[in-house]
């Protein structure tokens, strides 16, 4: 992970600070530029970054999972068109990259010996960036991710509760 950008070695960086707070932000899942040339080069969600192509950089630990537009499930509030499917597939690809990035971060916590005493919280400020699903109070606009990994509740690791 440190090869991609200057990610700190957690054990070295924070060994003197107990407890410590670390904020890690991901750009993944955010829409890129609306400029057509930029979108062609980088993808609508900058989902091409890290793929090793010129100007995209390389993320050695990233194993890209590119979603097939023909196989994505189109939410009920979007039109089922080739353009919507292509856009959803790009968004799911960026979700997967972010998920892998969180996994790499968790591996770094484990390798540094901090995983068993670190509370990790992941959230976002809005739902997916599509009509009726962001910046409004329609049901799809209220869906925001929230994940918590607590060392005090390991029996719940890996479980999903969609009711809360």
TrEMBL record:
PANTHER family with a match to the protein in the record: N-ACETYLGLUCOSAMINE-6-SULFATASE FAMILY MEMBER, N-SULPHOGLUCOSAMINE SULPHOHYDROLASE
Entry superkingdom: Eukaryota
Family: Belongs to the sulfatase family.
Any Pfam family the entry gives: Sulfatase
GO molecular function: N-sulfoglucosamine sulfohydrolase activity
Organism: Elysia marginata
Stated name of the protein: N-sulphoglucosamine sulphohydrolase
Ranges where the Sulfatase N-terminal domain occurs: 18-159
Cofactor(s) listed in the protein's UniProt record: Ca(2+)
A single GO BP: heparan sulfate proteoglycan catabolic process
